[in-house]
Structures
1.
Amino acid sequence: MKKRIKLLILLVSFVAPTFAQDVSVTAKVDSVELMIGDQTDLVVQVTLPSKLQAKFPIYTDTIVKGIEILETSPVDTTYSSDKSKMTLTQKFKLTSFDAKLYLIPPVDVEVDGQVYQSTPLSMKVESFDLTEANPEEFFGPKDIQSPPFMWGDWSLLFVCLLLIVPLGFLVIYILKRLLDNKPIIRRIKLTPEIPAHDEAIEGIETIRLQKSSIQSDSKAYYTALTDVVRKYIQRRFGFNALEMTSSEIIEQLLKTGNDRDIADLKKLFTTADLVKFAKHSPLINENDANLVNALEFINETKELPDPEAKPEPTEKIIVEKRSLQTKIALGVGFAITLGVIITCLVYIIKEGADLLRNFF
């Protein structure tokens, strides 16, 4: 039994140094020299076998007197390629507001109950040179200065001021129109009506000018010619000649008592019916004769203007009461414009007071 105990003690004494040799603690400062108030990182790394556990020190607010700890990062773990070892890293963000040379004591890391230490570190904190040798590099506190005049700060205020005047006139005009309730007077220009015979003669002249293009198509020629005559008869004599047959038109015209004019017109309608329905092919001189007959019929039956009649007015005046929709539109326009004016005034008073207070 004693031999076994001695063997176990010998084995532990042999293994413990092996583990101790496998554990290393290092610490470094990113910047060993820094200006007062600047920040730097204290990086602590522990390399140990993966089977072991390490416990980093817990600092409160300072690591030594004069060096403050602003932030402590979580422990970062990385493993070797064979997973047999691992490296634990923790960072402490440091700063100092006292210019001097500091000695940072070794960092203690506990690994499975045994404490391992890093090497001590030094850090120098420097202050600004406030000697009288370079007084121009440093300036004392400045007096309170007035801000410069910027057009951008005043542009919207000026726009509101410019809008107030026309909007005010617009409100007065709308209110006046809303209260007076005067009737609306409109003037409509009247286009004089073309007399029936002038319109018919113009149509026959158009057919004459286009005769060469429609001469080969007799049906189109007589259709255009009879349409002009039918429209003239309808306007001149007051019956619907466009919807009547040729015989009905002649029968209605016989009541006027002008047999000669109707006889010539009857020849035109007879030839037109033969061309349309019997495929009759009239001669060229026959076409010209029917065109002349139509023109003579129009000239002999046209209604001459009464020399004693008053000329027709060229414009018409319409007087009507203001509608409810117009009144509602005026009221809504008045309310909106007045609201815009009030908003502009509130903005001008508020922003103007703030700008003047800051400026002066």
2.
Amino acid sequence: MTTEPKPLGVLLAGGLARRMGGGDKPMRLVHGRTILDRVIERFAPQCDGLILNANGDPARFASLGLPVVADDVEGFAGPLAGILAALDWAAAHRPDIETVASVSADSPFIPTDLVARLEAARRSAGVPLACAASDGRTQPPIGLWPVAFREDLRHALVIDGERKIDRWTARHGCAAAEWSADPHDPFFNANTPEDLDHAERICALIEGT
């Protein structure tokens, strides 16, 4: 039985965090640990290395020891720009890598079988792309992306002005890997102070404290 090669993982942290009042959402504390630490703990074993997509001064993430990769596209172009930056970084620095897996860096409950199920979904459907879904809703920023698609994505972003992930993925075929949202949504992300309170309650249940 062969094992699929692991993808490079990218933690998408390029958002503006307007609803949180600015700053880096992934560095907010939930139950005594940063959200980003929680994401890394769950995601890193599934990947062949991690990079962090973030704009601005990369020094604020120096303690993580991860390459920090800014968006390739000028202006705030959303998650697709972060995915493109990761594909370009992989092509330049990890030519052995064929795919990149992306997660939102403010989602502390990422499934520990995320990559395996994304890979299984796209192979079962016979399509090149896959994204996560929960409770009947797709989670477009959380997905699996072939490095070979980077020039097509660049054209979509720069020439076509595309910003919606699901419109771009629909051009190529994208399978959805579904997770239950019971007892909590594994793709919950913290956008507001109220969300942080909710994440605290989930952690208390999971960790029994």
3.
Amino acid sequence: MIVPEISQANKAENLLERLIAPSNRYIVTKVGDLSVTFPDVLVSEIIILDRNAILALPFYETAIIGVTHHQANVMPLLLLRLLIGEQRTLITESLTVVRLSKIAEEFNGQNLSGVGIVVDRVIGSLTIEEYKDLHADASAPEFPSLGVTSFADNSTKKTNQTVANIKENEYTPIEIILLNIPAHIWRPQRWHISS
């Protein structure tokens, strides 16, 4: 059983190499109990969006809650709770949206530039030095475990992302979640007629 361990180690190295380095800080968001970090270069802007401004897309995966017009562009909205495997979620009256920058243009072979990631709330930011200092204080290695589940297998599965253990908090890099978005999420589903 050495082969799976080696392939998992290679997978961990490949994913860690694909993490985007911030220019100055990490934006820290909260999604349920999970803290998710966005490198500042990946964030175009943070928007508070009224639920009434969303146009639903009924023939797409439930993680795509719809689109909205923003600065003369159509912005697709991905509900992060559903991407990480939560079964159900309520959409509040106002949504906190992290809009991805041009850096996400060729991320994982998908053009994610301008996509809005819906999070529960933005809780702050960490400078690169604070992030590294917290890692130095932590007893665990920087990115210890990898058990990424493919969303293509079952979109309702819980995902074990790579996490950074920082004192009592665990931070999940958004890149790990974005790398696991299946390509089929962007294609409309067919209308099935039941017999």
